[in-house]
Amino acid sequence: MKGRGCWETGSVRSFCNSGCLNKFKKDDSGDEEPASQSDKGELHGTLKTLSSKLEDLSTCNDLIAKHGAALQRSLSELENLKLPAESGEKIKAVNERATLFRITSNAMINACRDFLDLAETHSRKWQRALQYEREQRIRLEETIEQLAKQHNSLERACRGAPGLSSGGAGITNTAKGSVQSTKGEASDEDEETEYFDAMEDAPAFITVTADPKHHRRSGSNLSGASEGHPEDWNLEDSVFDSSNQTSYNESTCKDLLPKKRRRTRIPDKPNYSLNLWSIMKNCIGKELSKIPMPVNFNEPLSMLQRLTEDLEYHELLDKAVKCESSTEQMCFVAAFSVSSYSTTVHRTAKPFNPLLGETYELDRLDEFGFRSLCEQVSHHPPAAAHHVYSKRGWTLWQEITIASKFRGKYLSIMPLGAIHLEFHSSGNHYVWRKVTSTVHNIIVGKLWIDQSGEIEIVNHKSKDKCQLKFTPYSYFSRDVPRKVTGVVTDADGKAHYVMSGTWDEKMECSKIVQSSHGSTSSEGKQKTVYQTLSPKVLWKKYPLPENAENMYFFSDLALTLNEPEERVAPTDSRLRPDQRLMESGRWDEANVEKQRLEEKQRAVRRRREAEAVEALEEGKDYEGYIPLWFERKVDPMTGELICVYKGGYWEAKDKQDWSICPDIF
After folding, report:
1. For residues 215 and 220, what is the distance between their CA atoms, to the nearest angstrom?
2. pTM for the complete prediction?
3. Running DSSP on this structure, what letter comes out for residue 563?
4. Closest CA to 465 of 475, 456, 454
5. What is the DSSP letter of 521?
6. What start and end residues bound the annotated signal peptide (predicted)?
């Protein structure tokens, strides 16, 4: 009897722990795959197995009842025997326990039968509900995908439709609050109406594009707060119309001087696989410049060369020189400041961190009228000084310090420092700063880059300003992706031009002819309505070269930046061996060389620190590292201590006297 009870208890435990019950539980787990005939067959098979187990339990119950009754009869017979009183009491207690055991086993079997009935009933309901939710999810995903495709196609159609900006009667409304034209008003509000979303942090505004042929009228419902003449726009066309871009390889001076042939391709990027998370998981919260990275995450250019890429659309500044109006010149400067981000849209790889004292020159004086020099003037924090002189009438200089943080899912890159641009003839001095760049999907998904924030460009001579808003990307926003908008104002705050476009494609400029105060937005901000003439394209991105996707998405200019050149300084980035090996596709050798260079730089830093300690002990002053071609001065415009070019580099190049250059490679 004892052995039989153990087997019966084991059967119940086996049933409760069986894989069949676990399978049944999984039917309610919300599995992502849609239900199929095989799933339904598996469900029926599970229920059949459960029924079989229940039959086994019923058989056990019958056996328990049968043997329990026999046990009770035997106990009753023992009670009738003439036994001592103590034995009779014990037999009676055993008889009661046997009765309780039989009642409990019957209750267990009934509970199991009820469980099976409920499982069979509710599993079908759960299956139908789950199937419905899966179908709804699939339909929603298909709808969102279709809407996204339609959204993109409409954007492309809108951008490529010249009729929308040249004289159509249609109305394009992309703003959160639209300006509706009414019958009976003048035709400049009936035709060619275009709207822009109001900037959140800057003063909100809406633009209405009017036809200059119908602009002259009386009794306008727009105030004369800011009035201009359409004829002025036509007079300025000689400068603005020359903004139609040609490619980097098609310079206006090509007919005057024989142009040096530059390379048009580099070796294709090798297909190396590497687990990013295995390297980055220990780097969360650290400065990017302090993280030891293999070249697998780099592109074969240094940060100095990336900084030089800002000059890809230098002809915008050449055209700005010809502008007689400072506000008109501001438009070209604003377009130039935006154009520097166009190369970043596909460039998700990290440039090489320059070694301390590393330089990079780009001498295009004969071809394009400018020569550029960069030097790494600090390593922690990493800072690069840049100076560009153009014989066509402008000089640009900057010192950029890169602050970056890895946040697990994204990487924020914050360039710190001001960019200065001065035009020789007019003396106009412009200053602005860069926006924050964010690299998304660092760990999972496809890497993509976004630019967000504001750029305020100030002309310190005329006090003109341009406030540019880089709208961060949002999947649910109605805005054009990578949108940039802004307004050019003079010293009195009077608006003259509206800037609009995207940082990866083009920038347009619209001359304001009238302005008025519109309605108050839902955020409580006063909207200004700018009536403008048709926009003119100031800048348009050059198409990428063929096979760019296999060449790190380099532009035509970027392909030439690391091209070997003679007579450059021994500290030039072109001579950096790990970068050259990577460009050649020899990544394993490049990683070894990169470690050697970094250890060499650390040894120099340790020696410099030891010299500083020794000087301190002797009571002497220690100057630390001194840049070769730049010197630190207080910037009179910003009050900041920055590195400015002190001269001597190009003279040393002419003489080929590089004796003061350190051995960093």
Report:
1. 10
2. 0.65
3. S
4. 456
5. P
6. none
